[in-house]
TrEMBL record:
Name by which UniProt lists this protein: Molybdopterin-binding protein
Residue segments, region Disordered: 1-23
Gene3D superfamilies per record: Oxidoreductase, molybdopterin-binding domain
Domain Oxidoreductase molybdopterin-binding residues, every copy: 35-179
Origin superkingdom: Bacteria
SUPFAM superfamilies: Oxidoreductase molybdopterin-binding domain
Native organism taxonomy: Bacteria, Bacillati, Actinomycetota, Actinomycetes, Micrococcales
Length: 197
């Protein structure tokens, strides 16, 4: 399946509409990490989803690879004002991962290898809005950019796209993650400039 999300395509004739307010377009791919790049080899990689009932769902790398993948073309927007247009990714939709996950929780805390966390409403991860991405521009995702796999939630500021993803924990309340505890907005809609709280 191939997916083109909002902000890319159809609006190229009007560059003013391409990027959210306060953003500039870059051709580079800056690296923004709060700490060193954890080395997570695929043999030891695991993704876990924990629900509020204590149920856990786990995928090894091979299991992730066996799930249907999607090719995604999307713009990404960092709160530090850079946007990158038309980036292409390959990964597994969270709709696929969550197909057998039963939850009545409204929020998810994404956890990374290395300790980073970020909070996202569950509904923002569903309906074709987020992926566990493992390729960028046709190549395996580089470790500095979150390889082997990262969360990709392109309609929110890029700090929500947790690199080195290792777990998704259902939460009844919207607890702040790493940057959200350090002054960033709880939700982070780039079109509304929800940068800081
Ligand atoms: N695990 C982890 N994920 C993270 C971060 C981080 O420091 N650690 N930084 C976030 C921020 S602030 C941004 S802008 C993007 C940067 O992704 P990039 O380095 O691939 O450009 O990753 C997000 N995900
Ligand atoms: Mo960021």
């Amino acid at each position: 399946m191939s997916i083109v999300t909002r902000g890319f395509g159809g609006r190229r004739d009007d560059p003013g509409d391409d990027v959210p307010p306060g953003q500039f377009v870059t051709q580079d791919f800056p690296v923004l990490s709060t700490g060193p790049t954890p080395s997570v080899d695929e043999a030891h990689w695991q993704l876990a989803v924990h629900t509020e009932t204590g149920a856990a769902h786990r995928w090894s790398w091979d299991e992730l690879m066996s799930l249907p993948a999607e090719d995604v073309t999307t713009d990404i927007h960092c709160v530090t004002h850079w946007s990158k247009l038309g980036t292409t990714w390959r990964g597994v939709s969270l709709d696929t991962l969550f197909a057998d996950v039963e939850t009545s929780a409204d929020f998810v805390m994404a956890h990374s290898y290395g300790g980073y966390t970020t909070n996202v409403p569950l509904q923002d991860l569903l309906d074709g809005q987020s992926w566990v991405a493992y390729e960028f521009e046709g190549e395996p995702l580089e470790p500095v950019h979150g390889g082997p796999a990262r969360l990709l939630v392109p309609h929110l500021y890029f700090w929500k796209s947790a690199k080195w993803l290792r777990g998704l924990v259902m939460e009844d309340d919207d607890q702040p993650g790493f940057w959200e505890s350090n002054g960033y907005h709880a939700y982070g809609d780039p079109w509304l400039e929800q940068r800081y709280s």
